Inverse folding.
C-alpha cells in the first residue's frame, strides 16, 4: 500500500515521498477500514511539510495529508455509526495519521457519512467550508443585508465565503491582490471585488455608502490586516485565520484604541476540540447537503493521481492558480 511520508522538513515537492507500507490491520472493536478515494492539497499541508504549521510540528518521519474522502471497506465489532460502502469524510485530526495513503484503519466514532456528491468537492469539505461558515456565524451577529469584507477572496476559503454569504443574504466585499483574480471572481458571480491597495478603506467606504462592515475576514496578516481594520465600523471585528504574507497581523492603535476595533483569531481545530459530536455532525450534514444540491462548489484547477505526487505539490505551490489541486487515490 502507498502512503506519503516525509523524513525532513523542506519544500513540499522535495521532501514528500511515496513509500510502500504494509496493509493496515483488520479493524478492531469500534474501528473501520477505509479506502481513501480523493484528497485535497491545502496551504496548511505545504506548511506542515516545511515545518512551519502552528503548534502542529510533526515528529519525523511523519505521514502527510490533512483532508479527503474515502469509502468504508470493513468494520470491526460494535460499530453502528458506519457500514461497508459508506462514503466518509476524512481528516488527519480525526484519523490520527496523515491521510495521503491508500487505506487506513481509524476509530469509526470519528467518521462522518457523506452523500454521493462530487468526490473532489467532498475531499475539500472538512476544512475550508467549515472555516468559512464558522467565521460568518461565530464572531459577529449579522443580519441579511449587513456588509462583510474578506481578503484573499479568490482562495478556496474565499470562494466558500462568497457562496455562504450569498445563502445568508450578506453583502460581501471581496479583496484580491491582482486584477486577473478580480475578473475571475466577478465572472463567478461575486458583485463587489476590489484589488488591495493603500486606499482600500476609502473604496470600501464608497461601496457601503458609509454603512461600514462590522466583520472583516483576514487570511494574509501584516499590513493587509491593517487595511481591513481601517475599513471597519467602530466596534468592528477582524477575524484572522491565515498568515499568507508570513507576517504578523498589524492593527493601528488608531483603530484599536479610538475606534474599538478588535482582532480575533480562528482555528478550526480549536472548534473541533471545543465541540461535541452532535455539533460537528450537524455542521457537516448542512455543508454536504449544500454540495449535493449543487448550491456550493469551489473551482478545482487540476486532479492528479497520487503517483504524480511531486507534480501535484509543485502545482499546488504555484501562485495565480484558478482553483484547488486534488489527488485521486482510488477511482
Ligand atoms: N485557521 C483555520 O482554521 C484555517 C482553515 C482553513 C484555511 N486556513 C488558511 O486559509 C488560507 C487560505 O487557504 P485556502 O486553502 O483557501 O487557499 P488556496 O485556495 O490554496 O489559495 C491561496 C490564496 O492565497 C493567496 N496568497 C498566497 N500568498 C499570498 C500573499 N503573500 N499575499 C496575499 N495573498 C496570498 C493566493 O492569491 P493568488 O491567487 O493571487 O496567488 C490565493 O488567493 C491559508 O493561509 C490557510 O492556511 C486556515
Amino acid at each position: 500500500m502507498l502512503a506519503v511520508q516525509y523524513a525532513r522538513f523542506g519544500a513540499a515537492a522535495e521532501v514528500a515521498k511515496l513509500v510502500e507500507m504494509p496493509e493496515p490491520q483488520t479493524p478492531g472493536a469500534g474501528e473501520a477500514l477505509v479506502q481513501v478515494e480523493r484528497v485535497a492539497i491545502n496551504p496548511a499541508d505545504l506548511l506542515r511539510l516545511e515545518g512551519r504549521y502552528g503548534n502542529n510540528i510533526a515528529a519525523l518521519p511523519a505521514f502527510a495529508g490533512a483532508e479527503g474522502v474515502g469509502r468504508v471497506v470493513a468494520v470491526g465489532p460494535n460499530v453502528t455509526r458506519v457500514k461497508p460502502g459508506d462514503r466518509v469524510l476524512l481528516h488527519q485530526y480525526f484519523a490520527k495519521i496523515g491521510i495521503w495513503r491508500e487505506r487506513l484503519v481509524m476509530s469509526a466514532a470519528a467518521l462522518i457519512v457523506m452523500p454521493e456528491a462530487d468526490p473532489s468537492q467532498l475531499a475539500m469539505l472538512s476544512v475550508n467550508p467549515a472555516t468559512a461558515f464558522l467565521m460568518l456565524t461565530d464572531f459577529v451577529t449579522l443580519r441579511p443585508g449587513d456588509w462583510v469584507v474578506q481578503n484573499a477572496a479568490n482562495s478556496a476559503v474565499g470562494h466558500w465565503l462568497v457562496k455562504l454569504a450569498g445563502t445568508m443574504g450578506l453583502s460581501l466585499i471581496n479583496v484580491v491582490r491582482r486584477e486577473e483574480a478580480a475578473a475571475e471572481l466577478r465572472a463567478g458571480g461575486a458583485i463587489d471585488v476590489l484589488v488591495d491597495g493603500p486606499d482600500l478603506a476609502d473604496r470600501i467606504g464608497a461601496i457601503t455608502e458609509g454603512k461600514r462592515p462590522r466583520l472583516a475576514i483576514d487570511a494574509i496578516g501584516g499590513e493587509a490586516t491593517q487595511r481591513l481594520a481601517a475599513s471597519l465600523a467602530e466596534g468592528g471585528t477582524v477575524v484572522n485565520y491565515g498568515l499568507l504574507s508570513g507576517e504578523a497581523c498589524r492593527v493601528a492603535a488608531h483603530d484599536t484604541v479610538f475606534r474599538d476595533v478588535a482582532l480575533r483569531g480562528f482555528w478550526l481545530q480549536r472548534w473541533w476540540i471545543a465541540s461535541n459530536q452532535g455539533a460537528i455532525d450537524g455542521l457537516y450534514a448542512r455543508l454536504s447537503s449544500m454540495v449535493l444540491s449543487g448550491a456550493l462548489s469551489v473551482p478545482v484547477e487540476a486532479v492528479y493521481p497520487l503517483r504524480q505526487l511531486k507534480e501535484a505539490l509543485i502545482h499546488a505551490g504555484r501562485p495565480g492558480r484558478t482553483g484547488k489541486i486534488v489527488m485521486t487515490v482510488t477511482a
User: Anything to note?
Assistant: The chain has a mean pLDDT of 95. Residues 42-44, 127-128, 131, 152, 154-157, 177-178, 181, 219-220, 241-242, 244-245, 266-268, 319-320, 324 surround NAP (CB under 6 Å). The domain at 2-126+275-328 is CATH 3.90.180.10 (Quinone Oxidoreductase; Chain A, domain 1).
